[in-house]
Amino acid sequence: MRSLFAALSGVLFGAGLATSQMTNPNKVLSFLDISGGWDPSLALVMGAALAVSAIAYAVVWQRETTFLGEALDLPKPSGIDRRLLGGATLFGIGWGLAGFCPGPAIAALVTGALPVVVFVGAMVVGTASFRYAETVRSNRNRPEPTPWRDLPC
């Protein structure tokens, strides 16, 4: 049931992205081009998404389980730090250069267009590289075992 609900949610999300033309990089780039042929229509899409999200979060914060009865695992606010700012900057640069962000790019894969495939491939490589770097970083910060701690008592 969980997989069915996830698949239906993904299809609905992808259909919304396609209907709003968020999967069209030219539409997105026109929205980002405030000094040229600016197209403000995606601001309406973002505003509608924020309104729907606000309502959904208001409902979710009142619940202890999902609608399928599973435990809710909501992220805890952690504040703004260098990592968040760096990630947001990289996201914005990528969005501005390619006209895609991850969700719309994955939804646009159904077109089979080469720029979409290249973008998603780069996104996968970037994600894998980040995970590898995080693993290396966390292993480097792990304290070295000392011989007397590892002896059985």
Number of domains: 1
Estimate the strand proportion.
under 5%
Could you give the count of β-strands?
0
Q: Order of SSEs, N→C?
A: HHHHHH
Query: What is the mean predicted local confidence, pLDDT?
Result: 87
Point out poorly predicted stretches: none
Shape: globular
Largest sheet: none
Structural class: mainly alpha
Characterise this structure:
Helix 1 crosses helix 5, helix 2 crosses helix 4 and helix 5 packs across helix 6. The relative contact order is 0.09. The protein has one domain. The protein has 153 residues and is mostly helical. The longest helix has 27 residues. The radius of gyration is 21 Å and the shape is globular.
Outline of the structure:
This protein has 153 residues and is mainly α. It is built from 6 helices and no strands.
How is the secondary structure organized here?
Layout: H1 2-19, H2 25-32, H3 41-60, H4 82-98, H5 102-108, H6 114-140
Keyword list:
mainly alpha, 6 helices, 63% helix, 0% strand, globular
